């Protein structure tokens, strides 16, 4: 594997742009090379197979979506409350909609992983690590509930993001109102 970390990241970013724009079918090593403006064969030098390329894109998405440690520290220093949970959800929506192509690329990768076992393993490891990190933050913050409630949150937020960044059901609800409802219903369900 080629060692230039900056070039690898630039190629992965180019791959994410291709994936978001054309879907998994349009993602080829040549398309990544063209998008990155590098000589043909460069992407295949860094990512030897299609699964390696797709897996690297999943890892790169998570790197770029990584929460700001300062924001997490500020949130984590607050008293556990419905407001803290709501602000945490708002932060997730803000991070994932600020770069809509990244979220679209992640959705594409998750769908492609359903058809590619090697990608499912690579991407699944990355997604599960993110889920574990969310559970750890939730527990460390003293918020009510645990792993089950965080899983419910993931399921709900994934649907919201799909609707915001894909073809919408156009229900007409403000996304922030939806986030507030998610938070109050999840926290309220745990308090009972």
Automatic annotation (TrEMBL):
This is TetR family transcriptional regulator. Residues 5-65 form the HTH tetR-type domain. Transmembrane segments: none annotated. Coiled coil: none annotated. Keywords: DNA-binding. It comes from the Bacteria. Residues 28-47 bind DNA. It comes from Micromonospora reichwaldensis. The keyword Protein transport does not apply.
